[in-house]
TrEMBL record:
The keyword Signal applies. It comes from the Eukaryota. This is Anterior gradient 3, protein disulphide isomerase family member. InterPro entries: AGR/TXD, Thioredoxin-like_sf.
Length: 155
């Protein structure tokens, strides 16, 4: 009898497992605190140093998003960034991602001042790409929600 019920349990698990896996997969992952609302399905690094390390190791550029909670422009940009599936996929697959609410000691990340929102790119050779800019001459590295498709073109 014991063997029989064990066999039944195994069969039950085999039948239930695929459905269980699908259910788990479809369930949204719990919000990741490092994302700060920029996209919970993106793997975010915690520090600039960690970002540089992973950029070099994986040969992917590092995208650094400077933002603040109480900045309405940051919030608007974040909303579009987080909701655009193409951007989310691009960010997850092609970049090492970091979002910061404080400045780093690397002055290369603020070539024209410390303002938010500001998006900087650092290539795998650890060079800050000051040549990748938005469309504002007074804030070279700021982007508005409607500018995000432009970010896709840079890739």
């Amino acid at each position: 009898v014991m063997l029989h019920s064990t066999l039944d349990l195994c069969l039950l698990l085999v039948t239930v497992s695929p459905n269980l896996a699908i259910a788990i997969k479809k369930e949204k992952r719990p919000p990741q605190t490092l994302s700060r609302g920029w996209g919970d399905d993106i793997t975010w690094v915690q520090t600039y140093e960690e970002g540089l390390f992973h950029a070099q190791k994986s040969n992917k550029p590092l995208m650094v998003i400077h933002h603040l909670e109480d900045c309405q422009y940051c919030q608007a940009l974040k909303k579009v960034f987080a909701q655009d599936e193409e951007i989310q996929e691009l960010a997850q697959n092609n970049f090492i991602m970091l979002n910061l609410m404080h400045e780093t000691t690397d002055k290369n990340l603020s070539p024209d001042g410390q303002y938010v929102p500001r998006i900087m790119f650092v290539d795998p050779s650890l060079t800050v790409r000051a040549d990748i800019t938005g469309r504002y001459s007074n804030r070279l590295y700021t982007y508005e929600p409607q500018d995000l498709p432009v970010c896709n073109d840079h890739n």
